What does this fold into?
Amino acid sequence: MTLRAGREVVDEVSRACAAAYPEEACGLLLGPVPEDFDRLGREVRADRALALPNGWDSSAKTNRYAIDPRRLAEVERGLSGTGRGVVGFYHSHPDHPAWPSPFDLKMAWPCLSYWIVRVDAGAPLDGRSWQRTEDGRSFVEEEIVLEDS
Ligand SMILES: [Zn+2]
It folds into this structure.
């Protein structure tokens, strides 16, 4: 399993995660949808990051995020028929490791990449990406490959 991302996508995700601190940032990763998207071991390439507002009420935004399903549906509708789509979500973990929480697991869909960026005291650190297993019981880490674009 691999998530490929261009330099400007990484910069955009880092910027959004730093800007949202101490709250969690969240957004979509867009790119070409591979034919084997639902195969474990697949590779996707995010060529665009789209920041979205964290939909939780302010008290909970420091440790969880919510993406408005209407916004998500809108984006998917806009891309339908283009061969592109939502290939993953990104979000930040303010002052916490880039390790998915039980809540992240509960909310996760199969196939998508879940890119988590640790943000310590406002500075984005490492990013790690995860994919939910078919049975929904755990995440498996995938490789993030940075591409020059
Ligand atoms: Zn999380």
